[in-house]
Amino acid sequence: MKKEHEGLKKVNSKTLQMVLFMLYNNLKALRELKKKGRKVGRLRYKKYGKIKSFILNQSGFKVIKTDNRLDKLYISKVGDIPIRVHREIEGKIKQVIIKQYKSGEWYALISADNEVSVITKTIEKVIGLDMGIKFFLSDSDGRQIENPKFYKKTLERLRIEQRKLSRTKKGSKNRKKQ
Predict the structure, then answer these.
(1) 44 and 95 inside one domain
(2) Which InterPro entries does the entry link to (predicted)?
């Protein structure tokens, strides 16, 4: 494919493999649905700019630690990109998904494989819990927690946001940001 399409030579090989892997899985899922008797349509080409993410699997990336607040993410065939890491990455990095959200901001979603140790505790006391309408929670000791009524508390904010949304045009960038 790279011989036929010059643009594919600029793309990381693992990214191309993941695209083919996802296509194969989608075709397999459609075949299974068709076997079950469900009506299945055709796969359609995605419009240019519709897909806003790509996956780097196993290789082709590296997180470079720096002394300042911004670290760097090295992507093969792209180079170093400054990133802000909000928490420590523990374990070996397995996959990086680069994704652009509707707000226009780019994010790197890093999947790492690490060993988790399970801590076992001895049970000292057992209680019964009951969720209700009048009281949010009642336990077997007689304690009752009032219903926090999240919906009523956020209703005014919801009205304001819906009003803002109704004033925007369908398909506009401001509507996508909402």
Answers:
(1) yes
(2) Transposase
